[in-house]
Amino acid sequence: MRFFRSKLSAISIAMAAMFVAGSATAADDLDLDLELDSGGKTRTAASLQFDVARTYAGKDHWSMARARTEVSAQGGQSGLKWKISGRADADGVFAIDNGFYPDAVRRDQQYQFDLRETYLDFSAGDVDFRVGRQHIVWGEMVGLFFADVVSARDLRTFYLPDFEQLRIPQWAARAEYYFGETHAELVWIPVPSYDRIGKPGAEFYPLPRGATVRGEVKPDASAGNANWGGRVSRLIGGWDVSGFYYRSMDVAQTFYVVGPNEFQPRHERISQLGGTFAKDFGEFVLKGELVHTRGRKSLTADPTAPNGLVGQDTLDYVVGIDIPAFDDGRINLQYFARRAANHEPATGLDRTEGGGSILLGTRIASGWETEALFVSMLNRTDYMFRPKLKWAAAKNLKVTFGVDVFGGKQNGLFGRYDDSDRVYTEARWSF
Q1: Which domains does the chain have, with CATH numbers?
Q2: What share of the chain is helix, strand, coil (3-state, %, to 5)?
Q3: How far is CA 138 from CA 135, 288, 319, 403, in A?
Q4: 253 CA to centre of own chain
Q5: Nearest 5°: CA angle at 296, between 321 and 317?
Q6: Which of 307, 309, 329, 387 has a CA 20 to 30 Å removed from the CA of 426?
Q7: In this predicted model, what pLDDT tens digit does every residue of 346-385 receive, in sequence order?
Q8: Tens digit of pLDDT for each residue in 318-344?
Q9: Helices and strands per DSSP (H, E), number in the chain
């Protein structure tokens, strides 16, 4: 049984490290950013969001009844600007379905306060600096984290939230320099933030039910455990291209086997070399990403492997295209894959693990839009289907009705959540 569970976990966790299924774009991170007037007047923004979800597959239950508040303020003069923002959550689902989730899950998710983007901007000559808690987004794709290597993520509700809500800011110092059509960027993160995966028994916890999990071991705040890297981008003949190198303590957890069906999340030192491209062909947009990762370990069913892990360098790549459709809509098509440089069959993974996604969206009436996202991991034919209806009820009020459906083989990234199908409603008021 230990080896079966290790194999299942190896597949699902390895694929989760490369994938996120939110349908938002990177532009969503700009929701709370406001332009300052020349006088440096302080500007504020806030939002209230209510999310209700009921899981109807498996054991029927309420899986979310959350109220979320976000506030931000920013100001300053031309030489020095600042921003501070925070988020507070309260989830009433633990009172509605009292006892469905373990106490550890309730303590982890019932109440929460997070400091969001909080930083200072200033310049020295031609170099712009940002110091503080911030989003650093290097990726280009819709719903994928391949080149977005700097970001940590809150995965306690899987990959379902929009990017702006999913990303966890990093405490970082960033320097940017522009010369002509070239943009150079250096990043140093002395104390990294890491992915949040919740506690055993949570709705989308990545390990099988029944597994024993010890407390997560995070790297100490030493100079040797800091994250750092650089990125250069340039517009060449209409092609927006970039290349980067990033050396880090992996934001994703590596699950060490420390006993029979017993795991402990830790973090590995990894290096990543990659690049992105994007090209506008009139109404069509072509995008792609390529990332080579060294130092990451994968779970294996090989009983001789130390801590049940094997080192496996990987090459992640994705290509996608945006196509106009339906008079007032779009189609986004993407193919993505991960190829193991040193394939180990005992991980349960094929040498190349691929998948595809289709995103359809269109306006159906004034204030009403529909969207449907279908994602499939091709090797195990498991899938996720997310149709939704969006309503702009007022200028500052948006309401979403949707369904999340998972299916396919149980050893797949999505198939393992076959009993987590849900219906949900989101309402967001910005002011």
Answers
A1: 2-430 (2.40.160.10)
A2: 10, 55, 35
A3: 10, 12, 16, 30
A4: 14
A5: 15
A6: 329
A7: 999 999 999 999 999 999 999 999 999 999 999 989 999 9
A8: 999 999 988 889 999 999 999 999 899
A9: 4, 27
